[in-house]
Amino acid sequence: MLQKVYFEDLGVKSFQPTWDYQETLLAKNTAIKSLAREHNEDVKLTNTEHRFIMVEHPPVFTLGKNGKREHVLVSEEQLEKLGIEFFHINRGGDITYHGPQQIVGYPILDLDKFQTDLGWYLRTLEQVIIDTIAEYGLIGERSAGETGVWLEPENPFMARKICAMGIKCSRWITMHGFALNVNPDLSHFEYIVPCGIQGKTVTSLEKELGRKVDYEEVKQKIKKHFAHIFDCELIG
């Protein structure tokens, strides 16, 4: 039976309340699973709820739990002048940027009902983006030892990241997710070492195609490929 995943588009929303919302959904699901384990019930039969959130954040840098502060190349005072928020958060990965015209996706999934394998989950999430950008004639690939979706990752002079990924998982409930660059201001990436990786650049659909891309159209394509790749029913 197909898993039901409830889709929510939050529109433009600041990072902190969105993070809080994710934490609320995570806590609700983990509490359900904890209770099931206490009663020796099958966790695959619990009433945990899958959610797929999309959002567009105002400018913000987020640093993963093991990330390095020195990968932010400007001071807190400079960040304030630039109007860019900063958060040290509880996902994996290093530093990344979120901002207007970037699609951020936060799947809150119970992997006990899919597959309890974080490698599988990340590769599957990457495939959603790879299939999405293929519709625009771009060949998205994986880079060995690094998460996210890249263009020409094997070419040291041309490797560039189009989609960053970083997740947290608790009791096999996921949170955080991906950030696909559609038409963002790429100059903001110059203030950080993106994902803590030296010498590799960041790109966007707009930069690669030489034109503005329909933001809402890309969201619909992501939804379509998410439902197909995760073999689920997307509701909403």
- First-last Cα distance: 19 Å
Helix content estimate: 25-40%
CATH architecture: 2-Layer Sandwich
How much is the radius of gyration in Å?
18 Å
User: Main β-sheet, in a few words?
Assistant: 9 strands, mixed
Q: List segments where confidence is low: pLDDT < 50 over at least 5 consecutive residues.
A: none
CATH-wise, what's the superfamily?
Answer: Bira Bifunctional Protein, Domain 2
Strand content of the residues, in percent?
25-35%
Secondary structure class reads: alpha/beta
| Total domain modules | 1
- How many DSSP helices? 5
Describe, in plain words, how this protein is organized in 3D.
The protein is α/β, with parallel strands linked by helices. The chain has a single domain (3-235), classed as BirA Bifunctional Protein, domain 2, CATH 3.30.930. It is built from 5 helices and 12 strands. The protein has helices spanning 15-38, 76-82, 118-134, 205-209, 215-229, and strands at residues 3-12, 50-56, 60-63, 85-88, 95-98, 102-108, 141-143, 146-151, 160-170, 173-181, 201-202, 232-235. Strands 1, 2, 6, 7, 8, 9, 10, 11 and 12 form a 9-stranded mixed sheet that branches. A 3-stranded mixed sheet has the order 4-3-5, covered by helices on one side. Helix 3 (118-134) crosses helix 5 (215-229). The longest helix is centred in the N-terminal third of the chain and has 24 residues, at 15-38. The radius of gyration is 18 Å and the shape is globular. It starts with a strand and ends with a strand. 37% of the residues are buried.
